[in-house]
Amino acid sequence: MLQVNRLLVIAAASAATVGALAATPATASPTTVRTLAPPPGNDEDRSGADHLTVTVRHAGAADGTRELYCHPGGGTHPDVTGACEAVDRNTRWGKDPFAPVPPDSMCTMIYGGPATAHVTGTWAGRPVDTTYDRSNGCEISRWNRMVPLLPDLGTGH
């Protein structure tokens, strides 16, 4: 029994850095296998965690500031479901879905118009403060990956 208790202490200490320890009754037998589980993923555990403010300028009718909440969805964005899906689609473990175009990128010199967007808030527990423009092919592609979070302005003007 002492061996089992020692294993429980080690497992609990590991859980603090790796994730939450799977729930197991305190009366479990010594042969019960304990596993580490990922952090909670229920909507009620994340409520308010994914909130973005999107300000669009120089895009005509799409200009303005809109609020977006995801998981669960809500806000003043005209396409809450589509916008949340666009950001979810671009979210990968270890990658910033809002990352700027790398400075050493070779981009086509296509001008997509004067539209800009500023996105702030919190996504997946991390702060967001980024800008978008349509100054070249790479920036247009970056913008288009986030449609409909950002307005669909086509491939260029």
Explained architecture:
It is a single chain. The chain has 157 residues and is α+β, with helices and mostly antiparallel strands. It has two domains: 1-39, no CATH class; 43-145, Subtilisin Inhibitor. Helices cover 26% and strands 21% of the residues. The protein is built from four helices and five strands. It has helices at 2-18, 43-46, 80-90, 137-145; strands at residues 50-57, 64-70, 74-75, 116-123, 126-133. Strands 3-2-1-4-5 form a five-stranded antiparallel β-sheet, with helices on one face. The protein is globular. The N and C termini lie far apart (73 Å). The relative contact order is 0.14. The model is unreliable at 1-47 (pLDDT under 50).
Characteristic key phrases:
protease inhibitor; disordered N terminus; Subtilisin Inhibitor; 2 domains; Subtilisin_inhibitor; alpha+beta; Subtilisin_inhibitor-like_sf; globular; 4 helices; 21% strand; 157 residues
